[in-house]
Amino acid sequence: xxxxxxxxxxxxxxxxxxxxxxxxxxxxxxxxxxxxxxxxxxxxxxxxxxxxxxxxxxxxxxxxxxxxxxxxxxxxxxxxxxxxxxxxxxxxxxxxxxxxxxxxxxxxxxxxxxxxxxxxxxxxxxxxxxxxxxxxxxxxxxxxxxxxxxxxxxxxxxxxxxxxxxxxxxxxxxxxxxxxxxxxxxxxxxxxxxxxxxxxxxxxxxxxxxxxxxxxxxxxxxxxxxxxxxxxxxxxxxxxxxxxxxxxxxxxxxxxxxxxxxxxxxxxxxxxxxxxxxxxxxxxxxxxxxxxxxxxxxxxxxxxxxxxxxxxxxxxxxxxxxxxxxxxxxxxxxxxxxxxxxxxxxxxxxxxxxxxxxxxxxxxxxxxxxxxxxxxxxxxxxxxxxxxxxxxxxxxxxxxxxxxxxxxxxxxxxxxxxxxxxxxxxxxxxxxxxxxxxxxxxxxxxxxxxxxxxxxxxxxxxxxxxxxxxxxxxxxxxxxxxxxxxxxxxxxxxxxxxxxxxxxxxxxxxxxxxxxxxxxxxxxxxxxxxxxxxxxxxxxxxxxxxxxxx
Length: 550
Prior knowledge:
The chain is 36% helix and 17% strand. By secondary structure, the chain is of the alpha/beta class. It folds into three domains: 3-168, Rossmann fold (3-Layer(aba) Sandwich); 185-350, Rossmann fold (3-Layer(aba) Sandwich), CATH 3.40.50; 353-547, Rossmann fold (3-Layer(aba) Sandwich), CATH 3.40.50. The longest helix is centred in the first third of the chain and has 16 residues, at 75-90. It is globular and about 70 Å long.
């Protein structure tokens, strides 16, 4: 029986287990929207394509399965490129479908026409266009395979409007076949030999292609070997922060004691991550291309092994398969580095203890203490980019897998769309979004999506009236010369109520607990505006101290 291109797209999505998509509708893919009408696939209608793409990224980040997003051509697609870039830099599986101009109008600069194979090459692992509806099963199957194999990432498929209306014969869609990469037994044995000879070993976890079983497995391995373990920037959910082996976050503003330990390590095992610019503190933790540490690099894509750092032992394997193989190794009875591991965990505990004082009436340290004491271990935290995120990353102790959605690429505006996606995915878990005032306004309109679908997220808008990170750098490099960083903000609590949600304003630390409990009890999407003194720019230094060079 012949089916339209739109029907074939939806059939292929269902065959590949897709349960949800995010979109901003467009006339260029009406045939797909019509085919979705009669399915049980959840469609989240968003308010801007960048937010829709970030929701798809969050689904991919929290599940390991490709997040699906659909947008229209031209401005719709270029809006979505913000989320596409995050997925690319963060190695997140995602498929972006773009409605395209009809085939007979191509290369005429038709209405909203863009040649996406040229425009999006740097944003995606593969950009394809389906000119023949009968090839839809082939293209979609390939898209899922490319998005999830090796180093995961986003794929773009463009869909000419007239192609989606064509009725053709095509084979029934089948699910893609996941591709795994496994470590060799000799490589695991070699790692065991190197561990046996090490004095100051260290493990750093990062990247994607983890699951709950692998996270449990690496925790058990670290416990057996008494190994210190750090988590790469914004991958903190990969290891329980209360575990005696946890050494801290290898990211922006790293604990100097941890940075020193990494530099002095004689065996550094990097699992799943690339140790890019942010987690490497600007490529200063390891020498390039020959690290002073003996480097064991475990990564599922051979093209990344040796790309920046030359490892002594390169293992092409996914984290899940590598961790499973570690069970073969026999731990020493009394690891000689055990005392060092205890010291590193103690240093992390001290570093992640909130400061005693803070400028202004709102003390973010006390607020973080309350959040730590009053949220469940499976609470999901999301955020975008800005100095406000330091309070979450440094002082929240992540306990479980799939509790964090934050862009390692440092993109603003991510936290709110990610929170909407997380709550849709895990409706029984609390979802808390941290956002700065500048960050929130990038995609604050997606609060309407949360209201429309009754997704009761709680968003903390940390409002200091400026683009704080840029102002901090400005005061450091050009002290006293404030330029283009001040913000005039709306009443964020009123903003929430105008959209149909719950709003609160906190101007003193002691107001926070009751405000949070009222937001939680409302059962609505909520915004708690936390009015923060601009001087409280970091946990350890004020804006004036930075300006004075202190």
